[in-house]
What we know:
Blueprint: H1 3-14, H2 18-30, H3 32-42, E1 50-55, H4 62-77, E2 80-86, H5 94-105, E3 112-118, H6 130-139, E4 144-148, E5 165-170, H7 175-188, E6 191-195, H8 202-213, E7 223-227, H9 235-251, H10 254-284, H11 286-296, H12 302-316
Helix pairs in contact: 1-2, 1-3, 2-3, 3-6, 4-5, 4-9, 7-8, 10-11, 10-12
Amino acid sequence: MDLSDIHTLLESARNGDRGSLARLLSQIERSPVVESELRLALAGTEARAVVVGVTGPPGAGKSTLISSLLGPATAAMGKTAVLAVDPSSPFSGGALLGDRVRMQSHGLGECVFIRSMASRGENGGLARTTATAVQLLDACGWQLIILETLGIGQVELDVMDIATVVMVVLNPGWGDTFQANKAGLTEAGDIFVINKADKEGAAQTRADLQDSLALLQSPVPISIFDTVAVQQQGVDALWNGVESYLCSAREQGLLAKKQEKRRRRLLMRILERGLLSRMYDYLDSEHGSHRLSAVLRGEIPLEVLQAEMLSSVEAKKH
Length: 318
């Protein structure tokens, strides 16, 4: 794709063309060069969108909960985009695509934009380009961005670095899994949801959460909500809780701190990606391949190869 095409698509997307927005999202997934050019084009753009990260174990009902939240969310904030990280194809969409039919039946129409993104093996529950996608959606006027993490059996903490507010979704009877992961959970979550709260074990799950959250020192109290998303039960109260958290966090100055953290995290990801790319280039070279073989044979220490790689990367800067 020509650089001029990127800017043309961006202008069209910022003017409300959803097709151009979809094409840009596809292109940044396929090409780091396009992603880099788009970030340059968006440099200096004020971040205004609220990003709600929804995380938790598989089967907790994250997609169904997001679907049920769209009504009150769009009523309160207007245009809402949903980014769902998918483990395989950016077009398969997993369970969320099934919910898309129900979303349209709500009559939300042009108020909602839904997109699946491929994780492509990334750790942390997010796709490589998630931060850039959020930046693009924000620049195109989507006031609320709901980000659903992969759900791979563990709590994906990367969402903390992107979201304005993190919603952790659990089911009753999470039990031993909760005990094994509660440190990560309590660090990640701003709001906790016990979905499928009509099932046995909801009270015990709430008690476990309350015990763990009581140990935290948070300037904004962390709330626990019970929902039955498939029946729309507790959803309005949950959304009111999101708005209450945002109001308190803004008053405490937490939102500004989170925005700074988002920028720092994006910077670190860009630096890490560039450094790794140059290191792989070195190892793929004839000299680098020879030196790697020497390490594997035990002829030179790994630390020597590391120093040579870093020197090679530094030399390419000049």
